[in-house]
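Team,

Forwarding the record for the chain on the shared tracking sheet. I've put the sequence and predicted structure together so nobody has to dig through attachments.
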Amino acid sequence: MGNDSTNIEPEKASRTSLKVLIKEGYEMLEYVARHGEMSIDPRVAAGIHQARQRVDSKQWNVDDETLLLQCYDQLAKQIYPVTLESLKAVKPQLKESKWTEPNAAKVITWYRRYTVFTLIVVLTIQMYYLFGHTLTQALTVDIQSLNDDPTQWDPALQANYQLLSYWNQIWLMGQKLALEPDPSGKSVDPSVLFSAQLTAAASVLQMLQNYVLPLMYGLLGAFIFVLRSLLYQVRTLTYTASREVGYRLRLTLGCLAGMITGWLMKPDFGEMALSPMAIAFLSGYSIEVLFTLLDRMIDQVRQTQTTSSASSRSPD
């Protein structure tokens, strides 16, 4: 009895695997039937149908299994680059008499939500930067000419100075920029406080311009590339869950690409000069171009070093 039960288990597992292949074969046949540019090979359809009829009977043999595998292989080649994995990821699946949302729809929702969130953050930081930049430009005056009494300053200068102090309070988390009085106990000179406010604002603007904004624009470019790729893959039924890893890595590389352009590049394309933020966005959108340029620069440096080493070793 023990040997009989041992033989039954592998047989049941084998039949279960065959039933899965037959079910997937029908799914591929359905896709071919719905696709206007494809036609069903009658021999393939007959082979899948015959396999379903014979799999539970005692007439199943090696020839039937070989025919099923050949039909399955022919269908898989016919629908490529669409695969069963991509069909299951894009199309709703019927489970327990209920249609479940496909994985691709959940992924698109996630990326769409965070793309909008990133865009709002970028616009907020950009507006904050532009407002601070406008104020610092308006307050670039000769500090020595300022009167010790702030109430005697020009009204426009007073207004811009007050706005700049409020602008600085945002990145100071609501705190005011205060300087300690000198050892004699005399209060801080207004011109010194004016200079401190201006210097602090200029430092924050430099940080936003060189680091934060390029990083955010690179991330936004990567998000938009991912959304466009997802749109194409869902439309062509080629999206698979394994692509998700590549998309997450691309977001990280998009941030790095944006920062690299802020550090290294000052592009000027003839009459069309692009801002650093636009270049950071383009780098995040097409990171392959940026890293190809970096690889070429490294290769040129290596070739230069090799040539220099060879010339230094050669006899005079």
